[in-house]
């Protein structure tokens, strides 16, 4: 063997050894990552259990020695558990698009969401809540307060278990759907099908089916507007100075009305003229402030899409904060409403459609939601913001705008909608529109031919093409999985609640 052959053989052997070493190192790194993840999960579970113990201790100090004190302490612990699951699953939709667009880091998003969720619950959560979510069952048909307490206890535990399971599986679901399903199942188990107002239930189901489609269509429409009027313009900076102030002012006006309608509904009820006046004033003020801000921000900016995205970061951060505030004020009732109903019925022996909420009960709900987001929320944040479709600040801006507008219109029409469904529907709408626009847009093809004629064209190998198809299928699998989780949330929570009620009734 010649010296050259010997050197080549040595290089091959060295390459094989190096490749084997790299593989071993990667295995060790993956093992270390998995170990750290398990350790973090154990710490998170430990903190959650400590919070539930604290909730029970707080309830015991507030209730004292009463006939049903053990029952009420159990209810406080289950209410805290429900609050944790709301934070882990539902809250993630408010900040997911902003995190996926890199407008917020994960830590920054968690801090903002936790602060504004807690503020929304404590400031605008209201002193009175409905005991029967959406009026789906008639409390007058429930035989006595004891049965009513166990109906609400079963509904609360079943909805918390279902949302916990959905979070574990990585499916963003509506906690409102879960609590409605729980009340429905436990009510039917306790009294029978006659206790359910099926007209109300039918209207709720119809609105739940329509709202994500509307959110997706509106988000796609705004993205189409941005593509035509900003992205595929010759002078991108001039187009941004013309249209970005309008879009930011529109977002501010819609969020002002949204915040009044959803976030402050427990403490203020303005009519439509007042709501319209507020929106117009906010639009005008924000437009006057945004115009010089955009001009200053865009000075010296490159005429590229990447540069334009910076103009949407600040509005995205504000929208994530406002969505979290409105969610905290509105959806904290999913945890504290059944808990307050249980406490009221156990202490007074009376059934009521509305009850007052003690501050300590609202505190359990507010802290539980924020803690659940911190401990278990990042997974759903990543799914909504990164894994459904690729986000950037412009697309995330369209999602936030569509979500607020859809909820606002639905509220004015009296339709009970889920913010979770609308946000995720808007994310899917953006993704599907991108696929359609990439394939069918003449304007986009003309733009590419004109501006990228002299750039080397990337040639995709068969492996690249398979990877692109695989990624599209992954998005479809997310779509099918999430829609399936939506479809079975109400019946699953209802079935769990019925089983829990039957088990408790058998033990009693």
């Amino acid at each position: 063997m010649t010296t050259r052959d010997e050197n080549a053989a040595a290089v091959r052997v060295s390459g094989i050894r190096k490749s084997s070493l790299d593989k071993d190192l990667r295995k060790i790194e993956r093992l270390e990552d998995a170990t750290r993840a398990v350790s973090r999960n154990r710490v998170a579970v430990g903190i959650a259990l400590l919070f539930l113990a604290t909730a029970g201790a707080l309830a015991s100090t507030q209730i004292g020695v009463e006939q049903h004190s053990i029952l009420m302490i159990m209810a406080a612990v289950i209410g805290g558990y429900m609050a944790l699951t709301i934070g882990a699953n539902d809250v993630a939709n408010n900040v997911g698009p902003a995190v996926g667009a890199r407008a917020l880091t994960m830590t920054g998003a968690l801090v903002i969401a936790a602060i504004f969720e807690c503020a929304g619950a404590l400031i605008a959560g209201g002193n009175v809540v409905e005991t029967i979510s959406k009026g789906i069952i008639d409390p007058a048909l429930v035989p006595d307060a004891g049965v009513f307490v166990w109906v609400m206890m079963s509904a609360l535990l079943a909805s918390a278990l279902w949302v916990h399971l959905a979070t574990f599986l990585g499916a963003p679901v509506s906690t409102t759907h879960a609590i409605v399903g729980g009340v429905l199942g436990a009510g039917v188990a306790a009294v029978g099908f006659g206790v359910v107002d099926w007209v109300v239930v039918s209207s709720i189901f119809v609105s739940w089916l329509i709202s994500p489609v509307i959110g997706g269509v509106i988000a796609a429409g705004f993205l189409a507007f941005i593509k035509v009027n900003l992205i595929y313009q010759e002078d991108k900076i001039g187009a941004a100075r013309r249209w970005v102030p309008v879009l930011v002012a529109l977002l501010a006006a819609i969020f002002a009305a949204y915040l009044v309608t959803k976030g402050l509904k427990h403490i203020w009820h303005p009519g439509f003229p007042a709501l319209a006046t507020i929106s117009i004033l906010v639009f005008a003020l924000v437009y006057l402030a945004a115009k010089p801000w955009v001009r200053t921000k865009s000075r010296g900016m490159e005429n590229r899409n990447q540069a334009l995205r910076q103009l949407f970061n600040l509005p995205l951060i504000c929208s994530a904060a406002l969505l979290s505030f409105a969610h905290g004020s509105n959806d904290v009732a999913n945890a504290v409403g059944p808990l307050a109903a249980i406490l009221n019925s156990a202490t007074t022996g009376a059934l009521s459609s509305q009850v007052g909420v003690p501050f300590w009960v609202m505190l359990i709900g507010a802290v539980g939601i924020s803690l659940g987001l911190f401990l278990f929320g990042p997974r759903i944040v990543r799914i909504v913001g990164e894994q459904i479709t690729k986000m950037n600040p412009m697309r995330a801006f369209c999602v936030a705008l569509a979500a607020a507008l859809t909820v606002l219109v639905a509220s004015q029409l009296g339709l009970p909608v889920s913010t979770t469904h609308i946000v995720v529907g808007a994310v899917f709408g953006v993704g599907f529109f991108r696929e359609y626009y990439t394939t069918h847009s003449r304007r986009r093809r003309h733009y590419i031919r004109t501006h990228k004629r002299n750039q080397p064209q990337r040639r995709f190998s068969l492996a690249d093409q398979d990877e692109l198809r695989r990624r599209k299928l992954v998005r479809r699998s997310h779509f099918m999985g999430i829609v399936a989780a939506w479809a079975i949330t109400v019946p699953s929570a209802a079935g769990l609640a019925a089983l829990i009620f039957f088990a408790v009734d058998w033990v009693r």
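The chain has a mean pLDDT of 80. DSSP finds 18 helices and two strands in the chain.
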